[in-house]
Design a protein that fits this description.
Layout lengths: L1 H61 L2 H26 L4 H7 L8 E2 H8 L5 H9 L6 E6 L8 E6 L6
Antiparallel strand pairs: 1-2, 2-3
C-alpha cells in the first residue's frame, strides 16, 4: 500500500508542478503579448505622425502661390500658342517655312495681359489671382517653334515679373 500512496503523491506533485509551470508560462506569454501590443501601438503612433508631417509638407509645397502661378501661366501659354498663334499661321501656305524663320529668335514676347484676354475677354478669378502676384505687362512668354513644326512642337521662354510677399 505504501507504493500506491507514493504513486499518487508523485502524480499529485507532478501535476502541481505542471500547473505551476503552466501558470508561469501563461503569465510570461501574457506579458509578452502586452509588450508586443505596446510596441505595435508606439510604432503605429510614430508612423502616423510621420505620415501627417509628410502630407502637411506636401500640401504646403503644392499650394504655394509661386507654384500655382507658374502652372497657370504655363497653361495659358500653351492654350494661346496652340489655339491662336499656331492655328493662324498653319492656315497659310508654306506655314512651316514661316515657323522655321522664328525658330531661332522666337515670336515677339506675349504679355500676360494678352494671354488672359485671349482666354476670356472679361476679368475672371484666374486673371485676378495672377495679376495679384504678377505684373500683367512685365510678365511675358516667348514662343520658339521647332521641327517638325506641328502644333505641340515648340518651346517657351517665360519671363516672370512677379512678387510673392
Amino acid at each position: 500500500m505504501k507504493t500506491a500512496k507514493k504513486k499518487s503523491s508523485s502524480t499529485l506533485h507532478t501535476s502541481r508542478t505542471r500547473v505551476e509551470s503552466s501558470k508561469i508560462a501563461h503569465d510570461k506569454k501574457v506579458e509578452r503579448i502586452k509588450a508586443d501590443t505596446a510596441q505595435t501601438a508606439i510604432i503605429g503612433v510614430i508612423l502616423g505622425s510621420m505620415l501627417v508631417v509628410i502630407i502637411g509638407v506636401l500640401a504646403i509645397q503644392f499650394t504655394k502661390p509661386e507654384r500655382q502661378v507658374v502652372s497657370k501661366i504655363e497653361s495659358l501659354a500653351a492654350n494661346y500658342y496652340e489655339n491662336s498663334l499656331y492655328k493662324t499661321i498653319s492656315n497659310s501656305p508654306n506655314y512651316k517655312e514661316t515657323l522655321k524663320n522664328y525658330s531661332e529668335n522666337g515670336f515677339a514676347p506675349v504679355a500676360l495681359r494678352q494671354l488672359l484676354l485671349f482666354k476670356s475677354g472679361q476679368d475672371t478669378k484666374e486673371s485676378k489671382y495672377l495679376t495679384k502676384y504678377c505684373n500683367d505687362d512685365g510678365t511675358t512668354v516667348t514662343f520658339y517653334p521647332k521641327e517638325p513644326y506641328d502644333i505641340k512642337d515648340y518651346t517657351v521662354e517665360y519671363n516672370y515679373y512677379c512678387s510673392f510677399d
